[in-house]
Amino acid sequence: MDFMVFQYPMITVQACLDGILLGILFALIAYGMALQWGVMNIINIAQGDLVILGGYIAYFMYLYGIHPAWGVIVSPIIMYFVGVGIYKLVINKVVDRDLFISILATFGISILFMQLMNFAFGADVVLANSGYGTTFLFDSAVVLPNSKIFSAFVSIVFAIGLVIYMKKSKLGRAIRATAQNARAAKILGVDTEKVYAATFGLNAALCGVAGALISITFTIHPYMGLPYTIRSFMIVIVAGLGNLPGVAMSGMGLGVFEEFADYILGTEFRIGSVFLLLVLILVYRRFKLSRKREYLK
Amino acid sequence: MNKNVLLYGAILIFGLAAPFVFPAFKVQLSILCVLIVLATTWNIQGGEMGYNTFGNILFYGLGMYLCASVQVGMFFPLAEWTESGGEKTFVHTPTQFFQGMAAGLVVAAIVPTIVAGLIGYAILGLRGHYFAICTLGLGVAAGEISGGIEIIGAGQGFTTPPFPNVGGLEARGEFFYFLSFGALVLTFIAVRAIYSTRFRLILNAIRDNEDKAEAMGIETMKYKIIGWMVSAFFCGLAGGIMGGLVGYIDSTDVAFDGREMGVFMVLMAILGGKGTLWGPVIGATVFHIFKEGFWTFFLGWQYVALGVLIVVIVIYFPEGIMGWLREKYPERFGEVVDEADRKAQVELK
Fold it and tell me: What is the ipTM of this complex?
């Protein structure tokens, strides 16, 4: 397997295309994380578990005979309320506190969700079959499931829709104002508490969309949440907060990296390589910044 | 001072007598000792230095694998051992077992220390949540990668050498109890000694304001690395002991178990009160008693309970038991309280 990548150029094309389609999904999750990180200054370790929960919603629709693609509409609606619920119960108590408190609290939520999903849905790896068939390119040398193309397309639609919503709508403007300066926004009559709740809800809804798409394209499993959190965190720190094209680009880059790691190192090291890449990126940035005697903030 | 000597004497006597007074709880008491070691060493970073790490599990798991590998590898081919799952083909004689254990523990303590020194320079330059997430990533990556390495058992796990047939089950329990109690005493003495020097003040200065500490001429990086190396030393030791005690090493469920042990050590230190000498000890004890006493009632819902517990402790009880006591009885902690000032502060709140 090791050197197939170099011997057969079509595998490279395959890996790149797979990676890009996968990366667009990652970028969608990362966009949610960047949103609530920027607005509330909270790193949500439970991000990946929200994604998986959204995936299970689509999977259950599939089990009950509804086409899982409708999960893209239903899942975010349910997840929005789940997100607002989490905000009201836990997050609003940690918003202004030390960042580590929020990391630990969301870590607790993550463990809680993992186990509850394990009870509710079982520990099996599941996927919702969309029945979209596959596309063959270059004399069948490159195989692309149509569901992947569909998921990338839907992600792009949702991302663009959200960008427009953030620019034009009243709530979007309130969210952006709060992100810039929460105190000033409060003085000018923005109900920041409501904005925070809506932001967290929107983040969860984005996770819901991504989850539904993941359940169609890949597989979901109750314990697969943390890698998605780490991926989105990584994408956000590489791109920087509020840099949307950057989020999309680094998401795709990460997707391609993962596909190649999968081919070259083997599937058992795939998740490990993602986590190692995170460490390497952070260390690289630390050394780059320390030349100017600065540090990551 | 006199009171202290009495206190430590009483604890030491209790610790030495415990396996004979409560023979049924030997394993639990050994695990408690390991937990206290982990919480105390986490406190060096999280409490004193202000670097909240999820990555100390890395040294714990590394120590666990190293100790078992050395113990096996000194006498038998390691690859065949792991392939056979530690079957009866290779049997350690008592001498081999104890020699291997001793050598394994030395390696398990020293190698993680060196690793901490090497990666510390790169990672301790990160601050706040970047550091927390980076160390979280390190721990998970270590688990995932060690789960793919054949020679240490990969996904099927690594059976540590069984205790030799001298004295039966009783002797095994006592051996591991005294080993872990010894590690605990060693850790406590070392940490106490460290905390009574200027080193603790430097760590606190780093926690309170690192830039200022650096401006005052403290080589912060040096002290951060030393602090991490001390942690790694004892975490590795604790991991080595725990590996022998559990008898079976799995990459993600036992060794690099970020979901259990990695969170436990943070939780115990916070529950007891971070930034104090006794806090982690009290926190670990309370946590372990709670866990062992009530875990069975949750039957399958342990992780749910754990998740809720984390959220509740972190949100409602971030100062911990020691912090609560300090607020309640500040005189006991040698703080001079001005009644008027205190009232004014209460009003301000």
Answer: 0.81
